[in-house]
Amino acid sequence: MIAIALRTLRHRPGGFAATFLSAFLGAALLMAFASLLDTAAGADEASAESLGTTASVAGGWCLVIVVFAVTSTLSLAVRQRGDQFAVLRRAGATGPQLRRMIVGEAVAVAVLAAGVAVPVGLAGGRVLLGLLKDTGQVADGVGYAFGPVALAAGFGVTLIGAVIAGFATSRRTSRMGVKRERPRARRIAAGLFLGAAAGCAVLTATVMDGKGIDAMQTAGQAGIWGSLGLALLAPELLRLTGTSVRLASAVMPVTLFSGIATGTVYMQGIEDDAAAGQIQPDYARDIQTLNYVVVGMITVFVAIMLVNTLIAATVHRRREFAQLRLAGATRGQVTAMVAAEALRVTVTGILAGSAASLFTILPFGSARAGEIWPSASIAPYAVIAAIAVLLTATATLGTTRRSIRGPALPQA
Amino acid sequence: MTDAVRVESLYKTYDTGTPVTALDGVSAAFEAGTFTAVMGPSGSGKSTLLQCAAGLDRPSAGRVFLGGAELTATGDTAMTKFRRERAGFVFQDYNLLPALTVEQNVVLPLRLARRRADRGRAREVLGTLGLAERAGELPERLSGGQRQRVAVARALVGRPAVIFADEPTGALDLRSAREVLALLRTTVRDFGRTVIMVTHDPMAAAYADTVLFLADGRLAGQLSAPTAEAVAAHLTELVAA
Ligand SMILES: Nc1ncnc2c1ncn2[C@@H]1O[C@H](COP(=O)(O)OP(=O)(O)O)[C@@H](O)[C@H]1O
Ligand SMILES: [Mg+2]
C-alpha cells in the first residue's frame, strides 16, 4: 500500500508542494524556537529563564498554526486527487487500505520536510539567540546548542500533525457511497475554539488585570483561538453574505491573517503606549520583537495557504471558464467575475478576522490601559487589510489569467 | 442454473438538495456464463444499477446477491473484500493510475487483495490482449484502445466470476470498440465468466445474449439474441414514450 502511495508521490510531486512548504517552514520555526531550550540546558539561570520564556510563548502558538496549515494544505492535496482514490476503491481498496495510503503519503512528506528544515532551523535558532543577546536577555558567553529538544519538536510536531491530518482527510475519502461534507465535527471544533477564545479573554480582563505585559500571553491566545474558530466557520459566514460556499477554503487564511495580525499589532500598540514612562521588565523588548516576528510568520503561512487554495479552486474551474468563453464571454468578463468573487472572499475574511481580533484587543486594553477601545491609529489596520486584498488579488488573478489564456477551446 | 448476480427491489435515491430517485424498484437476475447489456436513455439509472449490483455503492433499499451470498448484508470493508474476490470492472474512462506502469496497474487488484501478485499471470493476460511489449510503460504512452485493453486485463487478472463494464467502448474508435467487445464476448464463451455491460450503443449491445432496458429507474423491457436494429427500434420507442 505504502509502495503505491510513494510511487504516486514521486509521479506528481507538485500536488504536495504546498504541504511540503508549510511543513518545512513550520518545522524550521519549531526547531529554531525549541533549540533555545537545548541552549538553555548549558546556560546560567537568568539566561535559561529568558530562553525558556521565549521558546514556550512563541513556540506554543506556532504549533497551533503549523498544524492548521499542514492540515489544510494536505486535505486539499488529497481532495484534488479524489478521482485517483475512486480508481483505487474501484480496484478493490478497502477503507483502511486507503487510509494507510493517505497517511503514508502525509508522513513521507512530513519526514522529508522536517529533514530539509534542520539546517534552516539551526540557523534560525542562532539568529534568535543573537537577538536575545543583543537585548541583554542572555549572557554573551552562552553557547548555541541544537539538540534533542529541537529535533524532537521539529520532527514530532510535523509528523503528528501530518498523521492527524491524514486520518481526518482519509475518513471522508474512504467512506462508501455519496460523500457529503459533514459539518458537525467542524462546527463543534469551531465552538470549542471560540469557547477557548472567550475563556482567555475573560482571564485577561480579570486575573491578568494589573499584571502589565504578562497579560499579553492570554490576550494573544484569545485572538488566535478566536481567529481559528471563525476561520472554521467560513462556510456559514459565506452563506450569510450569499457567496458560493465553494470559496470557503480561501476565506479561512484571510480570516486567520487579519485576525491574528490585527490583534497582535494593536496589542503591541496598547502595550507601547501603556509602558511609556513606566519601568518595564527587561524582557519587554524581546516580546515586542517576537510579536512582530509572529505577524511576519503568519503572513508567510497565510500567503502559502491562500495561494494554494486559490490555485486549486481556479484550476478546478477551468472547464467552467472554458464554457463561459465558448458562450461568448471575453477574457475581461471572466476576469471581472472572478475578481468580484475574490473581493467578497477578502471582505468576508477581513470582517471575520476583525471580529476575532477583538478577543485580544478589548480585554487587553481593559487590563493594561483601563480602556476597552484602544485610542490607536487606524493606519495599521488599513495596512493589514491592504495586504489581505493584495494577496488574494494577486493569487486569484494570476491563476485565472493563466487558465483562460489562449483561444476559447474546450479543455479536457 | 445459478444466478451470478441477482438484485431484488433495488431503490436508490441521491440526496443532493432535491432528492433524485435513480432506481425505482429494480429486480433482475443475471445467469452465470451469460453476457447482458443494460440500455436506456441517459439518466435512466444504468450506471447506478451497475454500481449497486457490483457493490461499488449501496442501494437505499433492496438486496444484492453476488454468487449466492448477500452483498448488501455486510459492512463497507467486508463488501469491498467480497467484491474484489468475485468482480472485475471496466469503465469508460479506463480508471488506470497514471503513476503505475501497465503491469502494475494490471496486478493492482491482486496486490490490494494481498493475493500473490503473480507476474506470470499478468504477463499471460497482457499477452492475450496483445500488450506484452507495453507492460513496463506508463498509461499516458498508450492510445485509448490500448488503455481500455489494459483495463480489461486488470478486470480479468483475478479470474473473477463477474465482469461489470460501464460504457467500456464509449470513448473508443470503432475498431478498438470492436476489439474490446470481442474480448468480453470471448471471456463469456471460452472462460464461462458473466459479463454485465452498460452501453448506449445498439451495435455494442448486439454482442450480448440479452439486453435489459431501463427508463426512469425502472425496467422497461428485455430482448434476447438481440440485433443492433431490434435494439435501436426498442430504444426509439422508449425515448418516444
Ligand atoms: N452521485 C450522484 N449524485 C446525485 N445524483 C446522481 C448521482 N449519480 C447519478 N445521479 C442521478 O441519478 C440519475 C441516474 O443516473 P445514472 O445512473 O448515472 O444514469 P445513466 O448511467 O443511465 O445515465 C440521474 O438523474 C443522475 O443525475
Ligand atoms: Mg452512466
TrEMBL record, chain A:
The chain crosses the membrane at residues 58-78, 98-122, 142-167, 188-207, 219-238, 250-270, 290-315, 345-366, 378-397. Its main location: membrane. Residues 60-176, 293-403 form the ABC3 transporter permease C-terminal domain. The keyword Methyltransferase does not apply. It comes from the Bacteria. It is a multi-pass membrane protein. It is found in: Cell membrane. Belongs to the ABC-4 integral membrane protein family. This is Transporter. The lineage of its organism: Bacteria, Bacillati, Actinomycetota, Actinomycetes, Micromonosporales.
